[in-house]
Write a structure and sequence with these properties.
- By secondary structure, the chain is of the alpha/beta class.
- It contains 21 helices and 19 strands.
- The chain has a 5-stranded mixed beta sheet, sandwiched between helices.
- Helix 3 packs across helix 5 and helix 19 runs antiparallel to helix 21.
- The protein is flat, with a radius of gyration of 55 Å.
- The protein starts with a helix and ends with a helix.
- Keywords: Coiled coil.
Length: 759
Amino acid sequence: MSAVYIEKFVRRVMKPLLYIPSQSELLDFLSNYEPGVLGYFEFSGSPQPPGYLTFFTSALHSLKKDYLGTVRFGVITNKHLAKLVSLVHSGSVYLHRHFNTSLVFPREVISYTAENIYKWALENRETLLRWLRPHGGKSLLLNNELKKGPALFVFIPFNPLAESHPLIDEITEVALEYNNCHGDQVVERLLQHLRRVDAPVFKSLAPEPPAQLPDPPLITESPCCNTVVLPQWHSISRTHNVCELCVNQTAGGLRPRSVSMPQCSFFEMAAALDSFYLKEQTFYHVASDSIECRNFLSFYSPFSYYTACCRTINRGVTGFIDSEQDVFETPTIAFSSLEKKCEVDTPSSVPHIEENRYLFPELDVDSTSFIGLSCRTNKTLNIYLLDSNLFWLYAERLGAPSAARVKGFAAIVDVKEESHYVLDPKQALMKFTLESFIQNFSVLYSPLKRHLIGSDSAQFPSQRLITEVTTDTFWEVVLQKQDVLLLYYAQWCGFCPALNHVFIQLARLLPVDTFTVARIDVSQNDLPWEFMVDRLPTVLFFPCNRKDLSVKYPEDLPITLPNLLRFILHHSDPASAPQNSVNPPTKECLQREAVLQQGHISHLEREIQKLRAEISALQQAQGQVEARLSSTRRDEQQLRRRQHTLERQHSLLQRHSEQLQALHEQKSRQLEEVARQLQELADASENLLTENTWLKILVATMEQKLEGRDGAEGRAPPDEARSDYRKPSGAPRLPASTPPPSNVSSTLASERSTENRTD
C-alpha cells in the first residue's frame, strides 16, 4: 500500500488506453519491456467505431485481473501507421512480441469479447523482464521463479509516476541484446530507438516469413579463443593471472598462420585446456603489467599448436569494476605476427570471460559478442526487476550494503549450483556493467567469485587462544605458514560447546608460533564447496606447506585431548611437529606416565562399575515400569469390557423405555375413551333423573285425584255415584278410559321405594 503505486493504478484506470499518434510514439510503445496490445480503429466515420468499446473494456478487464498493469493497451487511428504493424481493417487487434512472431487477434476463430481479448493477450504474451513484488508474507514467489533456472535480480529505485525511466531502458536494451539470437531486424530498429540513434526509414513491423539463415562462414574467418583465470594459491593477495588461450593450425611445411574456427567444438577447446593446465605452472609466476605470450604444440597433431598470452591483473578487474585507465595502461610490448593474427573484428562463438578491448587493448574484439548470448550458453538467465525502495531488505540478504547511498544492486542466484554472485556495489548499475556481469557468469570457466555471507563478530578477543574464523578471514587463517586445526560448529549445535575446554587445553599445550587452533560458526558464515561438511561438530587439520592435503578427524573417534594430539602428531609435518623440540622421554618420566595411565585405568574401571550399577538399576526400574504398564493394560481391558457391558445395558434400557413410552401412550388413549363414555353416561343419567322427576310429579297428581274420587264415592249414594260415573268429568284423567286398577296404590308405593333407592 504505497501512495505512488495507488496513484499509478488510479491513473491507469482513468486512462487504460494509450493513444499512438506518430511513428515515434509507436516505437516507444513497442520498445517497452512490457507486452503491448495495439488496436486500430477509424474514428472518421463514427464517433465510436465498432469494437472500440469492447477493446476499452478489455483494457479495464486486464487491470482488474492484473493490477500491476504488465500488459499495455494502445490505440492507433492512422491507417498508414496501422499498416506498419499489419493492421488493415478497423477493429483489428495486434500483439507485439520481440523474438517470436507477433500476432493478430483471430476474430474468425475466437469471439470478439473483452474477456477473450485479454485472455488471448495473456496466453500469448512474451515476457522480457518481469517485476517481482513480494507481499511481505510467507509465499513461494521467489522459490517458483528460481526453480526455472539461474536468475538475475536487478534492484532499482523505481518511481511509478516518472515520465521516463532511463535505467529501465538500459536494462531493456541489455535484455533485448541478450536474447536476440538471430539478429532480428525489428529488434535492431527498436534497439536503435532506445539508444536514440537516427535509424533508417522505418519499415513494416509485420511478421515476415522466416528468412533462411546465412551459410556458416568459412573456417578462416575468426579464431577460436577463450580466457582462463589462474588462481593464486600461494598468496593471499587479490591479484591473479589471466591468459588468452587460442587454437592455431599450420598448413604442412608452410610458415605458421592462424586459422580461425567460428564455432569451436568442445573437444578441441577441451584438448587445448588440458594441454594448457599441464603447463599452467609456467604462467603462475608471471607478474607483469605487460602481456607475455608462449606457443606450445598439441598432443594430437604436429600441425596444431596453441598460443597463450597472459598478464597479471587485480581481481577487481574481472568484474569490470574499475575504469580502463585505472586498470591497464597500453603495454609497450608488440605482438608478433602470430599474435596479431588473433586481432579480429568478428565475435567469437565461444564467449570470452572479459572484454578483450579492456583487458588486452591490443586485441580489438567487437562488443557484439554479447548479442544472442542466451542461445550460446547453458546458463541462460531469467531477468527480474525489484523496486529497491520497497524491497531493499531482499538486496541486503543477497549481499548489498545496508547503508548504500544509491539503492542500485544486481545479483545472480543459481539454485542448481547452490551459489550466487554479486555485482560489486562500488560499480554503478548501468548497461556496460550488467553486460560484463552476465558475460562473466555465462562462460564455462567463470571468473566470478561466489558471494559468501559471513559474520563480523570475533570470539576470544583478549586471550586469543582460539582464533574465530569468518568468511572474510577463512583463507587468511587456513593458508598461513603453520599447522591449523579448525573446528566447525553452530549456535544450534548443543554438543559443540562441550568441546570448548578441550580446544582451550589443546591451544595451551601447542606452541603459538607453529600451530593455530581455530573455529568457525557455519550457521553465520558461508564456506567454499570443497570445505563444506555434512555434520557437526567436525574437525579439519591443515598441515603446514601442504594445505591441499587437509585431513578430516575420524567421525567414530571421540574428540578428546589425547586423541586430538595423536591425530595432529600423525598428520603434521615432521619438520614442524612439536615433539622435535622436546628431548626424548627418560625412564622416570615413563614410569610416572605409566602410573598416571594406571590411575586413569583404575578411575575408568570405577566409572565402568558405577555405570554397570546404574544400568542394573535402570533395568530393574524398567521391569517395574513394564509390570505397571501390563497392569495398566489389563485394567484398561477390563474397563473397556465394562464399558461395552454398560453400553449394551444402556441400549436395552433405552429400548425398554421406548416400549413403556408406547404403552403409556396407549393407556392414555384408552383412559380418554373411558372418560368420554362416562361423560356420556352422566349426561344420560341426568336426562333420566329429569324425566323421573316429572313422572313423580305426575304420579303424585294422579294419586291425589284418585284419593279424592275414592272419598267422594264413599259418601254419595249409589245412583249419584253411577250418574257421576256415566258423566264425563272435566278433571284430568289418565289416557286410558277405564279407571285404574286396584293395585295402583301398591304399585306406586313400590315405585317410590325404588326411586328412593335410586336416589
